[in-house]
């Protein structure tokens, strides 16, 4: 089929802005401020992991039913509504609710960020990339999202530092909550404003929308997608890559527990990691489009594996801050490169453009199950063996999943990556 004409540049810009904004409240703030979040909500690592699990269970259903929705309705409407609903949850988050309410809130976010948002975002990115720039499109999406996340993280650290008047080491629970409330509220307002911009400006010409949407998704069309070998392999690839991405959440805690940083110092480590993501995403996207995206996907898992082993063997302890940050960089390059490319290979895997939403929903049903098990697993490993040993166990977990993901990526390359112009394979 003939591919739709390329969408304007500001379409991707709004997609990038929305793509990270929607996850700021449930994920980016806990990633950057993990020690602070544990303190102000009076949680341990397992408690926080179980909140992520509630999110994951709701997301699991949302992936399945939200996918076909993306093949029927314009992305801007679904994405804008998702942003507004997510922002409303932020105002509840800022009250520091009881643990049971916090779990319900994470379930609510599992619905708002996935059912109305995830598949439309992926499909819209594929539309923007056209036939020959899938690596560039998804690299810019993930890299841009990383930059947005980094800017949110930086803003959060500045706001938190400004309102926390006491020394970090002696700040009371109420003083920490007072400061962190401003971080949450500022984030929620920005998320809502992004939703307004998406609704107003992220539009495609009417004739173009008709080319990429269907009136009704049939059982036979779903069966057509399920039978594709690329779909099964992408389920495994994304599952393994996403475990790696979830594990990057512990770096700020590693900085505090092993490297003995304070709360602001550990948050700055998390923010440093966020700034690595846009650089990796953009560079790997450009490289992939000039060669073979599936080959670079395989290489990214190899890098993630070796980075994980460096931490798992305990080499990054009692060392300089420079060596610590360099070791984080190795893991980040592998994890973020895999994340930037796993949807970029959909086109070479012969997944029809018009059924992208349905395919993404099915793939994500398995691929994003780490939302359910990764948080509790990391929490258990960290709490069962406090300090360096617990973190080593977490990185052995990363090494295992990187190895399995590498095998699946290599098989994908064998099946679909041998053509000279892999990225130009017709939809």
What this model shows, in words?
With 427 residues, this protein is mainly alpha-helical. The chain has a single domain, classed as Up-down Bundle (Growth Hormone, Chain: A), CATH 1.20.1250.20. It has 18 helices and no strands. Helix 1 (9-32) crosses helix 6 (118-129). The longest helix has 30 residues, at 134-163. The radius of gyration is 21 Å and the shape is globular. The termini are close together.
Helices and strands, with pairings:
Elements: H1 9-32, H2 34-40, H3 45-70, H4 75-93, H5 99-112, H6 118-129, H7 134-163, H8 173-201, H9 206-212, H10 219-226, H11 229-247, H12 251-257, H13 263-290, H14 293-312, H15 321-341, H16 356-367, H17 370-384, H18 388-416
Helix pairs in contact: 1-2, 1-4, 1-6, 1-7, 1-8, 3-5, 3-6, 3-16, 3-17, 4-5, 4-6, 4-8, 6-7, 6-16, 7-8, 7-13, 7-15, 11-15, 11-16, 11-17, 11-18, 12-13, 13-14, 13-15, 14-15, 14-18, 17-18
């Amino acid at each position: 089929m003939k591919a739709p004409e390329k969408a304007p540049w500001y379409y991707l810009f709004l997609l990038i802005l929305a793509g990270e904004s929607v996850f700021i409240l449930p994920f980016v703030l806990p990633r950057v401020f993990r020690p602070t979040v544990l303190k102000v909500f009076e949680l341990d690592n397992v408690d926080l992991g179980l909140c992520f699990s509630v999110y994951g269970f709701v997301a699991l259903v949302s992936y399945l039913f939200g996918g076909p929705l993306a093949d029927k309705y314009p992305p801007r409407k679904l994405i804008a509504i998702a942003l507004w609903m997510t922002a409303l949850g932020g105002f509840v988050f800022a009250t520091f609710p009881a643990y049971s309410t916090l779990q319900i809130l994470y379930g609510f976010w599992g619905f708002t960020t996935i059912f109305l948002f995830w598949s439309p975002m992926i499909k819209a990115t594929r539309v923007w990339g056209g036939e020959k720039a899938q690596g560039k499109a998804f690299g810019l999406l993930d890299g841009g999202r990383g930059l947005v996340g980094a800017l949110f993280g930086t803003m959060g650290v500045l706001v938190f530092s400004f309102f926390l008047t006491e020394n970090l080491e002696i700040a009371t629970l109420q003083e920490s909550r007072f400061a962190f409330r401003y971080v949450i509220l500022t984030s929620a307002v920005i998320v809502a404003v992004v939703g307004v911009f998406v609704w107003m400006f992220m539009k495609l010409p009417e004739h173009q929308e008709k080319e990429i949407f269907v009136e009704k998704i049939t059982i036979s069309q779903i069966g057509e997608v399920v039978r594709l070998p690329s779909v099964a392999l992408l389920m495994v690839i994304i599952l393994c890559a996403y475990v790696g991405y979830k594990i990057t959440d512990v770096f700020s805690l590693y900085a505090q527990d092993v490297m003995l940083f304070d709360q602001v110092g550990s948050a700055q480590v998390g923010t440093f990691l966020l700034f690595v993501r846009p650089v990796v995403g953009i560079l790997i996207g450009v490289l992939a489009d000039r060669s073979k995206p599936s080959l670079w996907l395989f290489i990214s898992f190899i890098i993630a594996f070796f980075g994980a082993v460096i931490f798992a063997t305990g080499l990054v302890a009692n060392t300089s801050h420079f060596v610590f940050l360099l070791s984080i960089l190795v893991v980040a390059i592998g994890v973020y490169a895999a994340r930037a490319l796993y949807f970029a290979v959909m086109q070479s895997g012969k997944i029809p453009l018009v059924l992208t939403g349905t395919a993404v929903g099915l793939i994500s049903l398995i691929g994003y199950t780490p939302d359910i098990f990764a948080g509790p697993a990391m929490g258990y490993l960290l709490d069962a063996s406090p300090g360096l040993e617990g973190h080593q166990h977490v990185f052995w977990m990363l090494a295992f999943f990187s190895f399995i993901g590498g095998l699946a990526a290599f098989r994908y390359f064998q099946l679909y990556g041998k053509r000279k112009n892999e990225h130009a394979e017709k939809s």
